[in-house]
Structures are given as structure tokens and as C-alpha cells.
Amino acid sequence: MSRLFGRGELKLALLHVAADLGPTNGYSIMHGLAERIGGSWQPSPGAIYPALLALEDGGLLIGRDHEGARRYEVTPAGRIAVAAEPDVLHEVADRAERAPAPPVTVGAVLDRLVADAPLRSRSLRPPQVDRLESLFQPLLAELRDLTAEEAP
């Protein structure tokens, strides 16, 4: 699987988003980036916040404490960097669109299927339990076959 961001592109993409949003916090920048990139990519605070810190250290962003949160603003040098690479968000979004979706666990799919809380809390009598289990047996066998064939 190829990387979504090339060397330096994450920082540049963050700068683009920060420039679009104006003075804002890291959370808004992170979610603004996710909206602009799209695809199955989800931002990780563990990657985003160190990149914001590096942009601050490089003089491309200014971070100030504001009402208990860090607020970022693009510096003039940051605006020059944004202007020099106007297509980075588009290029990364194109890659994200072409990237295969990440694998999903069987448990995550099952959780979505049985997320109906009122249904989960209903009580069953022994004959109903037997019927429910008999309904699930063929499904479980199919699921075992499916995951054996399609294991990532």
C-alpha cells in the first residue's frame, strides 16, 4: 500500500487548511483536512499535532494559547509556502480517492448490524433462543468461509 502523503505534503496540506480557516485550533484544522482529503483516510492526532508543532518551529504557523486551547495562524512565510504549492490538497485528495479502503474487522461489521439498542435488550424464551441460534448457524458458517478466503 502506498503512502497517501508524500514527503512534506502533510505539513503543507495543514498549512493550506489553516490558511483557509483563519485563526483556529488544531482540532478544526485536523477535521478540515479530513473533509478536504475525503476517501477512507482519517486523521490521527498523533500525526497532526507533531506536524503543527513542526510548522510552528519552522516559522510557518504561530500558535498561541487562547481560552485554554492552542490557536494557530499562518504566518507570512506560511502563506508564501501555500502559494508555492497550490495543488497539494487536490493531489492528495486524488490519491485518497484511488486508495483501497482499509480492512474492516468482522466485529466492526457485526457491531453495525446489531447496533439497534432496543432489539439488543429484548428478552427471549428458550424456544426463541433456539430459533435465533439456528438462524445464525448458517450465517456463521458462511462468515468462516468468507474470512478464510478473503483474509488480508
List the helices and strands and how they pair.
Elements: H1 9-21, E1 24-25, H2 26-37, H3 45-57, E2 61-66, E3 69-74, H4 76-84, H5 88-98, H6 106-113, H7 117-120, H8 126-149
Antiparallel strand pairs: 1-3, 2-3
Q: How would you describe this protein?
A:
A 3-stranded antiparallel sheet has the order 1-3-2. By secondary structure, the protein is mainly alpha-helical. The chain is elongated. The model has no long low-confidence stretch (mean pLDDT 88). The protein has 2 domains: 9-98, Orthogonal Bundle (Arc Repressor Mutant, subunit A); 106-149. It has helices at residues 9-21, 26-37, 45-57, 76-84, 88-98, 106-113, 117-120, 126-149, and strands at residues 24-25, 61-66, 69-74. It is built from 8 helices and 3 strands.
Number of domains: 2
Q: Could you state the order of secondary-structure elements as H and E?
A: HEHHEEHHHHH
> Which assembly state applies to the chains in this document?
single chain
How does the overall form come out from the CA principal axes? elongated
- Radius of gyration, in Å, reads 23 Å
Instruction: Quote the distance from N terminus to C terminus.
Output: 12 Å
Strand order of the largest sheet: 1-3-2
Largest sheet: 3 strands, antiparallel
The number of helices is 8
Structural class: mainly alpha
What ranges have pLDDT less than 50 throughout 5 or more consecutive residues? none
The percentage helix is 55-70%
Provide mean pLDDT, rounded.
88
Q: Superfamily at the CATH H level of the largest domain?
A: Winged helix-like DNA-binding domain superfamily/Winged helix DNA-binding domain
Beta-strand percentage range: 5-15%
